[in-house]
Amino acid sequence: MTHRTITLIVACLALTAGCSFLAPNPDSYSSHHYYSVGVDLDGNVSDVTIRLPVPQQDGTSTYNVTTLTGNGTVEGVFDATVVETDRGPMLELTADEVTVQPRYYRFVVEGDQGRRERISESEYDPADPDHQKVDRRSVGLRADQQVEYPIETRAPLGTSPTLYADDAVARELTACGPTSMESATCFAYDAPVYLSYEAGSDVRVAGVVSVEGSNEWFAGGWTGNSYVDRARFNTTGSQDGWVMSEGETETGIGSYPAPEP
Question: d(Cα 99, Cα 41) in Å, to the nearest integer?
Fold first, then answer.
């Protein structure tokens, strides 16, 4: 066997190994739906009822309260249940009262490391730049459903779970943000959420709710594609009924096409 022949064999083996490494690994294929809710308060509220959309498909919720919360509460702050409304299925959060107690911290540097430690109100000095007062409270949940691979992420409306059915909101094509991928398509819409509580005139309650669908696979490294449907609200003072939050849907995020199962 000549030296040239051996060199060609080694080159072919290296090329084959490289192609094998870069080929998608079928054992890695997975698809998920992620649902998350976050509510942020900077003051006390009472007699609280908040209804936020849950992922739905064909008007039916893809989650129940057990899969969302386990014990029917969110961080021990809100009682939770899934209810049907004329705007679609909603996660209902209720509480007699949610209080926000200020917390105080100072930043401490030890060697090359910095950390934040809690201090008492009496130790807090508002004039000290290393002191911090936190007077807000954040409550949230996140749920993960593994589903059959693959899901539709490029054109998910009507085929994959979203926060609202297509006939419940009017999505309009809009420009994507500067950080969006070229493959993405974006929509904006008015997203109804129900907010009812008593609060001081300067108390801010804000929140975000989202569902994300993703396909993932390994091909020389982890990659995938996804879509996300999200609604944000930001209010001040007491509320008593449906309000329109800002809805946005971004589809076609990531690498296409997804490998065949």
Answer: 9
d(C-alpha 90, C-alpha 3), whole Å: 72
What is the b/e burial string over 144-159, where b = at least 16 CB atoms within 10 angstroms of the residue's CB?
Answer: ebeeebbbbbbebeee
Average pLDDT for residues 185-207, to the nearest whole number? 98
Residue 120 CA to residue 106 CA, distance in Å, equals 10
Mean pLDDT rounded to a whole number for the chain: 91
**CA proximity to 126, closest of 109, 110, 106:** 106
Task: Tell me the average pLDDT across 154-177.
Answer: 95
Helices (H), the chain: 3-22, 65-69
Strand partners, 5: none
Quote the tokens at residue 137: 């409270």
User: Which pLDDT score, from 0 to 100, does residue 116 have?
Assistant: 93
Show the tokens assigned to 113: 């490391």
> Which helix (H) or strand (E) is 118 found in, with range?
strand 113-119
* DSSP single-letter state for residue 237: S
d(CA 170, CA 173): 10
| Start-end of H helices in 30-153 | 65-69
Rounded Cα–Cα distance for residues 69 and 202 (Å): 31
First to last CA, the chain: 42
With cut-offs at 50, 70 and 90, classify the pLDDT of residue 211.
Answer: very high
